[in-house]
Amino acid sequence: MGDGVDGNEDRAPDFSAVRANARLELHEAVCAERWKAILSEVVALHARMSAMSNRMWAVAGAMILLCVTGIAALVVLILTHGLKT
């Protein structure tokens, strides 16, 4: 009945390796699906962060422009009216 390996011809074939291989393949398939989902989330997160970064640059530019405009207005006022003490 056995396969003749190691002189054990009475022993039934061992299917534990087949079961282990099947479980390993199933585990790899589950991990591949999870990895695919993680990668799609990372791509989406990257797009959102890129959009947020663009908005932050726009706000920073607006704030710098506001500050420069305020300073320019002060300079114009000082030059046209002078410093009164």
Key words describing this protein structure:
single chain; 85 residues; mainly alpha
Task: Walk me through this protein's architecture.
With 85 residues, the protein is mostly helical. It is built from one helix and no strands. The chain has one helix spanning 16-81. The mean pLDDT is 88.
Quick recap:
By secondary structure, the protein is an all-alpha fold.
- Gyration radius (Cα, Å) is 36 Å
N- to C-terminal separation? 114 Å
The chain-level mean pLDDT equals: 88
Beta-strand content bin: under 5%
Q: How many helical stretches?
A: 1
Give the helix proportion (percent range).
Answer: over 70%
Poorly predicted parts: none
Query: Which structural class matches the secondary elements?
Result: mainly alpha
Number of strands: 0
Order of SSEs, N→C? Answer: H
Largest sheet: none
Give the oligomer, counting copies of the same chain as homo and different chains as hetero. Answer: single chain
Shape descriptor: rod-shaped
How does the SSE layout of this entry go?
Elements: H1 16-81
